[in-house]
Amino acid sequence: MQIDVYFLTFEKNIYTIMNLYTILRSAHSGWRYIVLAMLIVAVVVAILGWFGKKEYTEGNRKLNLFTLIAVHLQITFGLIIYFISPLVEAGIRYWKMEHVGMMVFSAILVTIGNARSKKEVLPQGKHRTITIYFGLALLVIMVSIFQMTKVGPLTTFWGMTH
Length: 162
Hints:
Elements: H1 2-51, H2 58-84, H3 86-89, H4 93-119, H5 123-151
Helix pairs in contact: 1-2, 1-5, 2-4, 4-5
């Protein structure tokens, strides 16, 4: 009797974890479009501000802050998924090492870029800092997405299967 109860509890816990995994994976997959859009907009606005010698406005600051928050939320989803994912458990190297490493590195770049832009005095310096750090983060993310399409032959750049 005691063994049956243990297995029933174990099966229920596995079912709950897999539901959480499915929900978080969907959130992580959908949220990436928001992250990509915000990074692209932030980089384009920063380039225009840098080369156009425009003022660094409160709107620029908020855009960069919301981009930082979006990236951090995405990393939070991703790290939770990392610890409960069957793909990591299966030992697939891309998901176990490369993807998580590149994404954490991208989040670090965005965080450093946002922090360093605050320390710049001139508006062009703020725009330049955001352009460089957010741009590098965007590049690393794009490379990681392209690598993902090589790992899963049915996965496209946009995360859809054939």
